[in-house]
Amino acid sequence: MKTKILFFVFLFVNAGFSLVQLPSTLYIVGNATPIGWHIEKALALETVSSGVYKYSGPLFAGAYKFANNQNSCWC
Fold first, then answer.
1. Residue 29, number of CB atoms within 10 A of its CB
2. Is the Cβ–Cβ distance between 45 and 28 less than 8 Å?
3. Residue 64 is assigned to a structural domain of this protein
4. Distance from first CA to last CA of the chain, Å, rounded?
5. Which domain of life is it from (predicted)?
6. Which of 5, 6, 12, 42 has its CB surrounded by the most CB atoms within 10 Å?
7. How many domains, in total, are found in the chain?
């Protein structure tokens, strides 16, 4: 019974998602980073594999966001 319920939940959850194109580069910005909130200086994350990114550097107490470009668009 648990297997059937899990299977139906899996189908229901997957039915609500659509495929999206992943960004080739992802950036991090915020007062938790060394560059602050200057999007034009956002730090590029290393692409490990499709959809997996890695940041190697200091992070401080504070907030941060991920961006897919270094302009003023937070898309």
1. 22
2. yes
3. yes
4. 42
5. Bacteria
6. 42
7. 1
